[in-house]
Amino acid sequence: MDLGFTPEQEKFRNSVREWCKTEITPLVNEMEEKEVFNKGLVEKFKKKFLNMWIPKNYGGSDADTVDICIVAEELGHACGSCLTLLEVGGLGILPIVFGGTEEQKQRFLPPIARGEHFYGFGLTDEGSGSDVANMNLTAVKKDGSWVLNGKKRLISNCDIAHSITVFAKTEPEKGAGGISEFVVDIGTPGFTVGKRLWGWGIKVHHTNELEFHDCIVPADRLIGEENKGFMYAMKTLDRTRLALGAGNVGIARAAFEVAVKFAKERKAFGKPIADNQAISFRLAEVATDIEAARLLAYKAAWLDNKKVRHTTETSMAKWYACATATRAAETAVHILGGYGWSKDYPVMIQLHDALGFTNAQGTAEIHKLIISRSFLE
Questions:
Q1: Do residues 202 and 32 touch, judged by C-beta distance below 8 A?
Q2: Closest Cα to residue 250, out of 300, 324, 200, 344?
Q3: How far apart are CA 30 and CA 20, in angstroms?
Q4: C-alpha closest to that of 246 among 321, 190, 191, 161
Q5: Is 230-376 CATH 1.20.140.10?
């Protein structure tokens, strides 16, 4: 394994970093204040980056998983909420990539690749979180269509989505083996985007309930094979969790940079506080955590590129990167003292974002469970 980026990847990373500085950084404070994405930014993002999740023969780019992690890291560094544009975008797209028929891929993927559509991801519902097999949303065959009833919760970016990739029980008695996947357009009769869950972190992106009341979905909106939805969802999470891990490396990096700059400039007792080992040692620990988290994320991405199974490595990367981002932001708040609570510095936003991502796509405990199974079973 080559631990460095190729010249092409370095060039790509620099271009993404510059794009983030130009397109995202000037808008961060306004978006955080209003708690809504800038529409122009979303449109630019869709056209530039969403096609990274899509194979080239459906209009996508030549991007591999390392490239996706590069983008995720730079987005996280610029704005935690903006990371969801990539992460949630992948969640909505990949189930079609992994499960769709050839006709469905040709129908659904090119408009996304062109930046015309954005898809959400409807997996979690009121009866289940990580316990996906016990979801309550049902889909019943009737007159050649499917009728959906139930609710979804904690579904991201519905306010900017054209459609939602929804998972429902088609044969409840089969547990995980009885879940199927559907594409449902926003505005379909019987489908309502419900109340928003207001949170302390990742505030710019919206999280909503979805309600289905006798929602009729055409048969050709069943993606792939009936009762294979759980498999498509798990394959999707194996890849999008990598983006989430890399993105949290970016959040950690951003908080660390603020803390280092402040520690060098802030003087107490006639010298910079960075000269105090109580400060410098904490920064050394965070620097090491960031490097370890980055290596975990890019190793798993490298394995994905090699088409080697990486579920364990992905869980390691996602859990550890989120924990690292939280520790980095907490350390920055501590080092900045009273300024850590000020809106003049971004470290409280970074802390809230990191805490929010900790429970996204599986809690820390779920990922530790996945990791432990790799050597206990």
A1: no
A2: 324
A3: 15
A4: 321
A5: yes
Cα–Cα distance for residue pair 244/333, rounded to 1 Å: 23
Q: What are phi and psi of 334, to 5 degrees?
A: -65, -45
Rounded Cα gap, residues 121 and 131, in angstroms: 16
Residue with tokens 């981002």: 325
Backbone angles phi, psi at 291, to 5 degrees: -65, -40
What phi, psi does 266 have (nearest 5°)?
Answer: -75, 125
The amino acid at 65:
T
Residues in a beta bridge with 184: 164
Dist CA 70 CA 87 (whole Å): 13
Residue type, 179: I
User: Does the model's pTM come out above 0.85?
Assistant: yes
Confidence of residue 1 (pLDDT cuts 50, 70, 90): low
Flag the least confident range among 36-45, 200-209, 210-219, 325-334: 200-209
Which residues are bridge partners to 219 per DSSP?
none
pLDDT exceeds 70 at position 32:
yes
Query: What is the token pair recorded at 136?
Result: 């309550």
Where do the H-state alpha helices sit in the chain? 7-19, 28-34, 39-49, 65-78, 80-99, 102-113, 229-265, 277-305, 311-336, 347-358, 364-376
* Residue boundaries of the structural domains of the chain: 7-113, 119-227, 230-376
Q: Which fold, 119-227?
A: Butyryl-CoA Dehydrogenase, subunit A; domain 2 (2.40.110)
Which tokens go with 318?
A: 């996602």
pLDDT digits (tens, 9 = 90+) for 220-253: 999 999 999 999 999 999 999 999 999 999 999 9
Residues in the chain: 377
Map residue 164 onto helix, strand or coil.
strand
Architecture of domain 7-113: Orthogonal Bundle (1.10)
Res 319 pLDDT > 70: yes
